[in-house]
């Protein structure tokens, strides 16, 4: 029977200690052998309370599509422990088939749903997610400037495929019958028939022969961009901002302490995964309530029996990884389970180094985020500072912005005096009291009435665009861009200001990394991106 699985980002907890384990080179990582349900299981326990440790998803030779021995991969990355990653084309071109995200960058999207992910705070995630790749051109995310892709860093034989290739991919020849768009520094540099080199500062968009005409959405010299979004098995968006490292596998074995294995629901068709009698050595990654990450290999089990073993080991959440000859487990310089072939990727555990710290200053804003530069600049200038939770600072880029928050960032961005008086009863004595007075006295925002500012209410995209258009006009920014028709028109009372923003070059018809939807609630990342542009225009 199909069971519903709710993906959850787990809070760390300091509970009971793990059972006695073998001696280790580092106290936070230990290996053990244990007999469970008649199988001799090899295990590695990782203490996630140890902030000196980090867990990462890495690719063989540092390139998507390469393979190497698990031991070599572990040693090259300075790993204390490693387990093989997700499924791949083991008998053909070696390309992975699952999600791989490393240090905030999606280096491969996957066709299977179950994933393990982890953030900078060592908080793990287990769930089912499904990707969509959407693109925009000419600064627009609306038709006719939109496009989509099948995959990122994956080569397809299908002539109807559209794929994105970044410098993270192993370069392979592209079919001469297709068309390739070369994007450098966010701008289309050329469009060619057939193959092209992947630029170090950009990517390729390759259109197969059957869809080559779709490349007409691009023009040389115009902007180009894309984004990868994910939804759960119920079709709802999943926020993965904070999960800097992810590895797809499957099937999901245990969730919330219950066995939930259902390979058919996760679109597996291979009898090796769907049959209850197909047994081999299999691997899993799981999490226990004592905040230990557990990586293990189990011989001679079906995926259903693997789930039973994981539950018997006390896993609260667990997901399977690739199996058979790929199965491998490494710890403290040697194999616990030796794989029979090279692997394309792995989950590793290593001592944390400086490169794992996000330069943005936030644990949930990685360098592949579309608003990364804007968010980092606004933090440096003291305009948007996020929220400190424990010892970590979060930006929460996908969170809706409120009127109170907008008042604060406008005050900070344009250095408004905070001694302005107001008559808003709902703002008096609140954290945004002085900010409400500042923006109202500057003429940037208005209250709902003389007594109601509505600070807790969300702001819409059209409201922010209109406000910034007025700010730019007050600062003398000229109208130099051509006005354009909007697919989704703004409210009549804001239409003049929105079109003023277009002529000022503040927006085209995009809001952050999506189409401009005037009445939609504005997200913090989109506000940061727009505010960064506005500040540059007035010399801030």
TrEMBL record:
Coiled-coil portions: none
Key words, A-Z: Glycosidase, Hydrolase, Signal
Highest taxon in the source lineage: Bacteria
Statement: the UniProt record of this protein carries the keyword Hydrolase: yes
Pfam entry (one): SLH
InterPro entries: NAGPA (IPR018711), SLH_dom (IPR001119)
Residues of the SLH domain: 358-424, 481-540
Stretch forming the signal peptide: 1-22
Recorded GO MF terms: hydrolase activity, acting on glycosyl bonds
PROSITE patterns: SLH
Record PANTHER family: N-ACETYLGLUCOSAMINE-1-PHOSPHODIESTER ALPHA-N-ACETYLGLUCOSAMINIDASE
Protein name from the UniProt record: Phosphodiester glycosidase family protein
Native species: Tumebacillus lipolyticus
């Amino acid at each position: 029977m199909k069971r519903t699985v709710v993906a959850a980002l787990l809070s760390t907890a300091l509970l009971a200690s793990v059972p006695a384990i073998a001696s280790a080179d580092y106290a936070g990582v230990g290996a053990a052998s244990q007999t469970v349900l008649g199988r001799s299981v090899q295990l590695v326990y990782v203490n996630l309370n140890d902030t000196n440790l980090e867990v990462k998803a890495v690719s063989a030779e540092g390139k998507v599509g390469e393979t190497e021995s698990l031991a070599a991969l572990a040693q090259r990355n300075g790993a204390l422990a490693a387990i093989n990653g997700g499924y791949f084309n083991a008998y053909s071109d070696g390309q992975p088939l699952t999600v791989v995200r490393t240090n905030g960058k999606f280096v491969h999207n996957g066709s299977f749903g179950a994933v393990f992910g982890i953030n900078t705070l060592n908080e793990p995630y287990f769930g089912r997610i499904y990707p969509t790749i959407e693109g925009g051109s000419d600064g627009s995310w609306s038709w006719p400037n939109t496009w989509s892709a099948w995959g990122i860093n994956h080569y397809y034989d299908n002539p109807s495929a559209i794929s994105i290739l970044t410098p993270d991919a192993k370069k392979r020849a592209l079919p001469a019958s297709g068309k390739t768009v070369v994007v450098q520094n966010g701008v289309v540099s050329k469009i060619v028939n057939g193959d092209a080199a992947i630029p170090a500062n950009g990517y390729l968009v390759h259109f197969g022969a059957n869809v080559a005409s779709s490349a007409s959405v691009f023009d040389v010299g115009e902007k180009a961009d894309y984004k990868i979004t994910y939804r759960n098995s119920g079709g709802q968006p999943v926020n993965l901002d904070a999960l800097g490292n992810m590895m797809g596998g499957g099937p999901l074995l245990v969730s919330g302490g219950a066995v939930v294995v259902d390979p058919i629901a996760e679109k597996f068709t291979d009898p090796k995964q769907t049959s209850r009698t197909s047994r081999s050595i299999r691997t899993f990654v799981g999490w226990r309530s004592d905040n230990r990450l557990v990586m293990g290999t189990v011989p001679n089990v079906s995926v259903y029996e693997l789930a039973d073993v994981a539950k018997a080991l006390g896993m609260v959440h667990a997901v399977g990884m690739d199996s058979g000859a790929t199965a491998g487990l490494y710890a403290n310089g040697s194999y616990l389970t030796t794989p029979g072939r090279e692997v394309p990727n792995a989950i590793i555990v290593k001592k944390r180094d400086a490169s794992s710290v996000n330069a943005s200053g936030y644990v949930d804003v990685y360098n592949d985020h579309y608003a990364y530069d804007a968010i980092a600049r606004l933090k440096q200038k003291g305009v948007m500072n996020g929220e400190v939770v424990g010892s970590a600072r979060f930006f929460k880029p996908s969170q809706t912005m409120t009127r109170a928050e907008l008042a604060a960032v406008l005050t900070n961005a344009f250095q408004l005096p905070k001694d302005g008086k107001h008559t808003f009863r709902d703002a008096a004595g609140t954290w945004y009291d002085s900010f409400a007075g500042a923006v109202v006295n500057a003429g940037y925002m208005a209250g709902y009435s003389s007594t109601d500012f509505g600070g807790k209410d969300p702001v819409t995209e059209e409201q922010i665009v209109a406000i910034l258009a007025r700010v730019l006009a007050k600062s003398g920014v000229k109208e130099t861009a051509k006005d354009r028709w909007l697919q989704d028109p703004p409210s009549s009372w804001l239409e003049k200001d929105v079109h003023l923003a277009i002529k000022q070059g503040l927006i085209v018809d995009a809001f952050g990394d999506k189409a401009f939807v005037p009445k939609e609630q504005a997200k913090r990342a989109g506000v940061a991106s727009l505010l960064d542009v506005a500040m540059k225009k007035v010399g801030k």
